[in-house]
Design goal:
5-stranded parallel beta sheet, 289 residues, 40% helix, single chain, alpha/beta, Rossmann fold, 9 strands
Length: 289
Amino acid sequence: MKPLWFVIVTGLSGSGKTTAIKVFEDLGFFCVDNLPTALIMTFADLCSQAKEDIQRIALGVDIRTQGGLGNLPEALQRLTDQGHRVDILFLDAREEILIRRYSETRRRHPLDTGELSVVEAIQREREELLYLRNMATKILDSSEYTIHQLRDVIHSWFVEPEGDRGMNVAVMSFGFKYGIPLNADCVFDVRFLPNPHFEPELKEHSGNDHRVVEFVLTSSIAAEILPRLKGFLEAALPHYVQEGKAYLTVGVGCTGGRHRSVVVANEVGDFLKSQGYSVTIHHRDINKD
């Protein structure tokens, strides 16, 4: 029986699971959405014995799955015991984002039977899926992601790196005022750097603007700290690789996520690319006020 790689795609209704499944399909995974959990082991046996070259499988499971999710942990443990690789991707989103998405699409929440409001249904679903979220290999808050950004993150996490360093690295800038990214493995706070927000000629420009870049990087503080940050990552990342980690998310935060964190995330991302890592850079809050 050949070993397979299963990615369980789950999370809150409206958080982007359908989009994620399509991304996995584009990446060459064999995808099945809402397979009853009681059939997972039978399905795994059939795929292992199939003549077709099926090696990577993405299974969409959520609150709608027939038969419920109660026996899912047991099924996943049996997959692992049989030598299969199992990862769980849990998609999440902030409550106000989920409410807005349901309002825009005019869809009913799966738990909305007429007795619950949308807010109550979302809260109940979050409670019922908490145990699955705690089991997740990766948690992705899709609140501010476009479809293209969602694809980039999934690609960085679940496509084997082609470089010789053996790990995909996602570098994400963010604003602390909007919350720390749930999926970050390492978080660096750069709010001590000079703030372009208080410079009238720079305030309206982002950290991708060369004037903002120059303002931040030419400061004496940046000249002192950035080499140390790069040195830390240069020393630490090979140990993540040795531990078998295939993907790592580095978060870089400032107050609003528009200026300093963007500059530093770009610097860090370019540096890690020069070190041979496969790197994606995403600026989560760059377009927020």
